[in-house]
Design brief:
Length: 468
């Protein structure tokens, strides 16, 4: 696996540097085998990986070629620059109004927050769920109360271990999706009127949860590739009584940014020095396009201040609502919050997820899912490059399923949203990702659905609306 990934990465670098240009023919499999001393299956796997990323294409009886339609890569958006003072939130009504537009199946789902359900092993999961319901031990209705099913928490602990983090099952609390986990963490750490730090732009669900709890927020600038600014965060920690930080470090929604390993370590150390906990919303970490996952924050959390929140909703089982919090030193607090709010997460579903993980096959599913998403990302980028106007900036993610676009300053994203809906297209306008409704000329697009004729036509229509 390492050798074919290495060859794919070397070839991708040659394409990025312009050594291999659109339309160029790649060396044949046989020639590449002789050149690098590799087996034909290794070279073929590397070329298939590059094809899935949208970088090359196979032509019958001719070989592999750099895709000719890549075009001029769009420039990257700049670092966000939110105003530094705290904000009292009033965003929920505004966000709900926008989100209602994404529910209609007749609308092209470029604004959706969810990937296509057909990417997931729903039949196998359904069999696990049916078996769990048929063979449910009546005692499980008591034993699987918070912190949750023992076997599921053991399986999650093993996955943390595989990512270099020692997280004992006792620190893991099963929740009804990641959103409940975020709410439990905020409830455990804050009181109405308290101040938390969020990145800007940020996922709107965190804004809604904070507003519901009566919290104020200070927005921290973030880079579209490397995520939250440590320099700005350190300044905010010195000048504001911040009770907690709520960040996405891996393939953030909406920008797709991923905090590099060294900066991630520095972030955890900075928060340790200020005795401020980190609530990490990490639902996209499994969706990396590269050969390895980003550094797990729990692997560099000796003090247990990272409250790691995740779920299976984006990578395995949408609709099953199984999430968890690896709560570290706060595990007892989170368990009590869970008991006093929703009491328990559905027992048969916990058992079914534990059974699926125990059977194996999850990693194979993830490999197929990552390849699909990487190919869909490349296809959507190509469509945007072909149809969007000059002045568009685009953040190229290395995982997840969102594209963040900065449009020319004259564009009103909310007006574009309304125009797009009239043409049967949903988009996510930038202001829903800001406490102050900033990013008025930005949009988020979803490549978690197949990039087919319908979605390409939708992108072309958006391009025409932008040109009008």
């Amino acid at each position: 696996m390492t050798r074919y990934h290495d060859l794919a990465d070397q070839t991708a670098a040659l394409i990025a540097d312009g050594v291999l240009r659109p339309g160029d023919r790649l060396p044949s499999v046989r020639h590449t085998c002789r050149l690098h001393g590799l087996a034909p299956v290794t070279v073929t796997q590397a070329y298939h990986l590059l094809e899935s990323r949208g970088l090359i294409e196979a032509r019958p009886r001719s070989g592999y070629f750099v895709r000719a339609h890549l075009g001029q890569r769009l420039p990257e958006p700049e670092m966000s620059r939110p105003v530094g003072h705290s904000t009292q939130l009033e965003v929920s009504d505004f966000i709900f109004e926008i989100l209602d537009s994404t529910k209609d199946p007749a609308v092209a789902p470029l604004g959706s927050s969810f990937p296509s359900p057909w990417l997931f092993p729903l039949d196998k999961l359904g069999r696990c769920l049916a078996s769990a319901a048929r063979h449910l031990d009546p005692l499980a209705t008591v034993t699987d109360l918070p912190p949750g099913n023992d076997e599921l928490r053991r399986q999650l602990s093993l996955r943390y271990l595989a990512h270099g983090a020692r997280v004992p099952p006792q620190e893991i609390i099963i929740t009804s999706g990641a959103l409940e986990g975020l709410n439990l963490c905020l409830q455990a750490l804050t009181r109405p009127g308290d101040l938390i730090a969020i990145e800007s732009p940020t996922f709107y669900a965190g804004l809604q949860a904070s507003e519901r709890l009566g919290l104020k927020v200070v927005e921290i600038p973030s880079h579209p590739r490397e995520g939250v600014s440590l320099e700005a965060l350190e300044d905010a920690l010195r000048h504001h009584p911040i009770k907690a930080c709520l960040f996405m470090l891996n393939f953030a929604n909406p920008t797709g940014s991923c905090v590099p390993d060294a900066r991630r370590r520095a972030l955890v150390e900075l928060l340790d020095r200020h005795d401020v906990p980190l609530i990490e919303d990490d639902v996209y970490a499994e969706l990396h396009f590269g050969p390895t996952a980003p550094l797990c924050s729990k692997a560099v959390d000796p003090q247990g201040r990272v409250m790691h929140v995740s779920s299976f909703s984006k990578c395995l089982a949408p609709g099953y609502r199984i999430g968890w919090v690896a709560a570290g030193r706060y595990a007892g607090l989170i368990q009590r919050q869970k008991l006093s709010t929703s009491l328990a997460t559905t027992v048969p579903v916990q058992i079914a997820m534990a059974d699926y993980l125990r059977q194996g096959g999850y990693e194979n599913h993830l490999r197929h899912l990552r390849r699909s998403l990487a190919a869909q990302e490349a296809a959507l980028v190509a469509a945007v490059e072909a149809h969007f106007p000059e002045g568009t900036r685009l953040a190229r993610p290395q995982g997840g399923y969102f594209l963040w676009l900065e449009l020319p300053r004259r564009v009103d994203a909310l007006a574009l949203h309304r125009q797009a809906l009239a043409h049967g297209i949903s988009i996510a306008p930038g202001p829903i990702f800001s406490a102050k409704r900033e990013f008025g000329h930005c949009i988020r697009l979803n490549f978690g659905h197949p990039v087919d004729a319908r979605s390409r036509d939708a992108v072309a229509t958006l391009g025409r609306l932008l040109a009008a």
